[in-house]
Amino acid sequence: MSKSISGFSKLSKSKKIDWIVDTYFSNNKNAKHILKQYWNSDDKLQQLHDEFIENTITNYYLPLGVAPNFLINNKLYTIPMAIEESSVVAAASKAAKFWMDRGGFKAEVLSTTKIGQVHFMFQGSFESLKNFFSTIKPKLIEDAKPITKNMEKRGGGIIDIELRDKSHNIEGYYQLHATFETLDAMGANFINSCLEQFAKTFKEEALVFKDFSESEKQIDVVMSILSNYVPECLVRAEVSCPVTDLTENDNMDADEFARKFVQAVNIAEAEPYRAVTHNKGIMNGIDAVVLATGNDFRAVEAGVHAYASKKGKYSSLTHASINDGVFKFWIEIPLALGTVGGLTSLHPLVKLALELLHKPTAKELMQIVAVAGLAQNFAALRSLTTTGIQEGHMKMHLMNILNQFEATNKEKELLVNHFKTHTVTHSAVVEAIEKIRA
Ligand code: MEV
């Protein structure tokens, strides 16, 4: 039976666990053991993880894998990926190797502008609000100097602040729409601090603005927050090769493969049901690298899917063409990433992942992440349009099924060997295990 508790966050970690176990697992003596099993034996490291969030009771592991052989702008990378889905790293590695032999990936950052908004209500004439805003704009920027001065020293900061009239959407609703350059930081804290300062100055100055009527002086700030929609923080990654170079063996006709591949992309461009799955496959690659490098995958997901709908209909994030016998496949996505700040200097595995990537700038990381998404999509479409997805997927899933049946190492060796030449299905694996055990 569930019960509520007050003051939970103030309990010690072991008292929190006792409460959880007594309340929810009174018949499961194992629950405490499982939670403790995932504690790190290094107390300092465990404390670091405990302090990332409130009410930590244990750690949640995900595998950290690597996909080698990514040639990006003529530089070789081994890409770290944190993900639980069995076939993702294998697919990325396969696509990396395929394109390494065909000139690799080309990637380019198109823009790096980030956005934040102060949403406020104003009752009065837009003309007098515009007049107030243009008078006060230099002070908005000046008052934020203590927050922006370090970022400015490095070449970033506030790019601009605009006043936007949104009263056609909601009566009395306006915005300060600000743009920022945050260099190697993802910039969420920097942007939010600037916005909260803008809001404070804006409200205070309105109260003493002589051209405002009494009601106009009462600006009502609703909220100040960055936007995770970053269509001007864009990266593009691409692969291309002659169509004739597209196949690795004689079983597949290169022209037919290229044609089907482009058709598959066209379907995802035209059909939202397919586009969502197509883009999910892209995000398999993107999220795994975003997570491994300590970035905010929820922010990336939200921004990317909004971008996929930018024309008013959800569509593919990748595109493909065949022109004059040349196959081209590319992705263009918004990615607000950081390689300094946040978890990047705190989480030992994040630091390691960034070191593995040659300590990239945020722009380089944008390129690497976009490439991981493109590679993942290439691998998925290649399987989908040729063998079907299950062949590779089930091969990688085999180990999960064997573990479900608590197969010994010897049994695993025998069965992995057996399934090199047999189709993996759940029932075929069960049958094979039963046969061995009999
Ligand atoms: C599975 O995680 C991802 C795929 O469904 C992507 C796709 O269909 O393109 C294979």
UniProtKB/TrEMBL annotation:
Broad class of enzyme this protein falls into: oxidoreductase
Enzyme Commission code(s) on record: 1.1.1.88
Gene3D superfamilies with a match to the protein in the record: 1.10.8.660, 3-hydroxy-3-methylglutaryl-coenzyme A Reductase, Chain A, domain 2 (3.90.770.10)
Keyword presence, NAD: yes
A Pfam family of this chain: HMG-CoA_red
Annotated signal peptide: none
Keywords, in A-Z order: NAD, Oxidoreductase
NCBIfam families: HMG_CoA_R_NAD
Protein name: 3-hydroxy-3-methylglutaryl coenzyme A reductase
